[in-house]
Structures are given as structure tokens and as C-alpha cells.
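ESCALATION

Customer reports they have been waiting on this structure for their group meeting. Please prioritize. Original submission:
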Amino acid sequence: MPVVDLATVPLRSLNADLHKLPQNTNETHWTIRNPGGKHALAVGLDAPVTVEIEGHVGYYCGGMNKEATIVVAGNAGVGVGENMMSGEIRIKGDASQAAGATGRGGLLVIEGDASARCGISMKGIDIVVKGSIGPMSAFMAQEGNLVVLGDAGEALGDSIYEARLFVRGTVRSLGADCVEKPMEAADRTALAGVIARAGLSDDVSPDEFKLYGSARTLYHFHVDNASAY
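Update from on-call: job pushed to the front of the queue and completed.
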């Protein structure tokens, strides 16, 4: 189990070693000490390894992640998990702006709060925030699920496409084209699945959430059903 101390090892060297790992590596569990808020830590990983980071990280931690599990025992700066493809990233503290931005897959769990534009332009990622999220979250969200156990700030889901937004608390205001929607069976199943993957099935129930999404999707649903009559 490799243990890397960033107080003595250059960040570039650590990332290079992580990038060299083959799919069948025996070095499946890495511990990173003294991250010191460094930027671009554990980015572009492409192997099924677990990386535990003991402290706070800077911008873009875990960006472009594929298959790896990254656990941050602290807070994360701007763009954590940006454009991640698969795997899991778990932030034990709070996350700054644009958490999970443009993410295409995988699971991002933030155990504290997330700042503005959480899930901006998300494209298939599942994001779970145990606290609250800031304004303009899920802006132009295209696909995936954003699950918020706390509250949501202003302009939630502005210019949203097909993503689903599940909020247990209150929503300060909705953005353009975003509306509250009825929770269908498929929505409930999707929400339950994300909650289970985040390890929260014993703490929350899908019945506690409201669903928000595209008003255009709701409009097309009504038109399609009307045409049947």
C-alpha cells in the first residue's frame, strides 16, 4: 500500500506514478498525506484503485476520473470531479464551486455543503450532497441525477435539459425552464439507486424528496398524452 507524503514528494511525480498504473495493478490502495490544498491532485486516473487523501485539496481534484475511488478527508476547491467518467469521489468536508462540472458518469458524494454551480452542465454523473448547494446549481444540466439532502440556492436548474434534480429541503428559486415535477415510478427507482450507492439508504427515503426538471419535458409529456385522445 503506497503512502505518499506531498510535503516531500512533488505533485507532478505522484500524478505520473498514478497514471502509469495498469488495470491489473497490485498497488490498489494509495494514501496521500499533507496535500496542502494542492491543485489537480489525482487527476486523470484510469485504473480501479483507491486513493485516500488526508487533508484539504485545491482545484480540480479527481478531474477526468475513470474507475478510481478517491476519498478526500477534508474540503475540496473549485471543480472537484470535473468531467469524471466513472468511479467514485467522496468529499468528507465541503466543496467549492462547480463540483462535478460536465461529469459524464460515476458518483460524486459531498458530505458537507457545495457552493455555486454544483453540477453545472452535468452529462450523466450522479451527485449526492448531504448538505446544501449554492446558486445556479445544475445550470444547463443535460443528464444524470443531483440529489440534495439540504436546501438549494437561487436559480436551481437554469436552462436544464434532461437531468433530474431531487431536493429534500427548500429551494430558494428555480431557474429558467426548471419546474417541480411529479415523481414517477422511474424517478423514484433512480433516486433510490443513487441513495443506495451513496450509502444513505438507512438515513433517507425517496419519499422525502421533491423532483425538479425541464419544463419542456413536462410540456411534451402533456402534448403526447393529449394526442392519444
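Sent to customer with the following note: Residues 97-217 form one domain.
Escalation resolved.
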